[in-house]
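Q: Predict the bound structure with adenosine-5'-diphosphate.
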Amino acid sequence: MVDIHLDGVGHSYDGGRTWALRPMTRTLHAARAYALLGPSGCGKTTLLNIISGLLTPTVGRIWFGDREVTRVPTAARNIAQVFQFPVLYEGMSVYDNLAFPLRNRGWPKAEIDRRVRAVSHLLGLDSHLHRRSRRLDPGRQQIVSLGRGLVRSDVAAVLLDEPLTVVDPALRWTLRSTLKEIHRDTGHTLVYVTHDQTEALTFADEVMVLQDGDVVQSGEPTELFLSPAHEFVGHFIGSPGMNMIPADLVDGVVRVGDTPVGRAADTDGALPSGPVRIGVRPEFVRISAVPTAPGLPARVTAVDRMGAYHLVHAEIDGRRLSAKVDTGSRYAPGALEYFHFVPDRAFLFRDAIRCGTIAAQDGAERA
Ligand SMILES: Nc1ncnc2c1ncn2[C@@H]1O[C@H](COP(=O)(O)OP(=O)(O)O)[C@@H](O)[C@H]1O
Ligand SMILES: [Mg+2]
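A: Predicted complex:
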């Protein structure tokens, strides 16, 4: 098992006019499970294919441990790749499909049998082992493809590109946990591409969030949720995403319109006065009926009953914000309520990048 190191790796499909993947330097550590998360077209597949060798990057170099592989073909990189759609020998049985990558490498028969049965058991394929692959439905075929990717325990990395797209949603939950289990068991380095935040957050040790060919933040799921470093992460992760409220910083005090809502902290020295955006997740917005300082008076515009919680939407001078509150609460459209932010869970952004936090004040609730 080796670290995968990207050294200034970037890719352009049009001779350098635009970057599908902007040059980046970072290390994917051995035995960790990574998710590449971002909307369609942000460069996830490009990055994955550069790691697998299906694509040679326009600039930069890739290392597997201390071996440079930038121009080494896929077959010689010792990786397994699973694609969005099934890649199988349709005429072969499920068993033979799973055994194929191992036979190819001359594993002993008993060892192959043990490994095939272990993987098929984990993926719920036991009762299908002797069926021809073409007789399975597409979802099941994809699970076999997944099995083929996971069956070898000696690969440098397993790369998966939106592998659960064709699988039934109910099964996806199970398969994600299975994948985690197999990962724990084999200690593979996993790189998992998805546009689905739930999939990324439940599965990965570390999530790399991509926007327009750039990794805007990489971290553990809780870190991305609790401490987004970039507006895009706040917006893309969470359901709904983070509130972004236009505000002003005046001599260290954060104001929404005329209302002070707290003091700026963690600003790496003095943050100059001027416009900022407050980013605060709906989970960290509290509501009270009486004016408590610092509280932002806002008019409730709608209340969505979500079953497990209520989502209260409000507006102040054309700025909107939402709060997640418990189902016992009673807020009505039209009412004026006082909104406040859980200290240290509300952040300041400038040019989409986090530049500070709204600090705790004495007596205020902490996260
Ligand atoms: N073979 C290709 N030729 C030209 N442009 C491509 C090619 N593959 C991808 N792109 C472009 O590169 C960008 C990143 O694509 P991709 O890596 O496939 O994104 P993702 O997997 O996140 O959806 C997109 O703008 C896409 O249109
Ligand atoms: Mg893709």
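A: Residues 362-367 have pLDDT under 50 and may be disordered.
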